[in-house]
Each structure stands twice: as C-alpha cells, then as structure tokens.
Amino acid sequence: MSVKSKIVEELKAGSKSVEDLVKATGSKPGVVKGQLTRLMKEGKVEKTAEGKYKLK
Q1: pLDDT tens, position by position, for the chain (56 residues)?
Q2: Sign of CA dihedral 17, 20, 25, 28
Q3: Per the confidence metrics, is the pTM higher than 0.90?
Q4: Is residue 52, in this structure, part of any structural domain at all?
Q5: Is residue 49 part of a domain?
Q6: Fewer beta carbons below 10 Å: N end or C end of the chain?
Q7: What is Dmax (Cα atoms) for the chain?
C-alpha cells in the first residue's frame, strides 16, 4: 500500500496530525507532508483549525 493510501486510511478514523501520520505510516515527515499537500490539491483532504488533517 502506498503512503498516500495509508494516509487516507488513517484519516478515515478521524483527523490526525503530521506526527500521528508519520507514526502510522512509518514514513519520514517530509514524505507525509508531501503526500498531504498532494491530497489537499486533489481536494480529498483539508487542514483543520487545530493544524490537523481530515478527509473532506
């Protein structure tokens, strides 16, 4: 499963911080941030007021 897919799966359970997603995916922070940026551009993910990420 790709990092992007793992992130989407994790976010199905609720909003998560970058740190949460790094632990859950086993990927480096830069990789997770890059995938989150792509998912936001695709309109699948949004950032919450608390700085976490959630599915749209």
Answers
A1: 899 999 999 999 999 999 999 999 999 999 999 999 999 999 999 999 999 999 99
A2: positive
A3: yes
A4: no
A5: no
A6: N
A7: 29
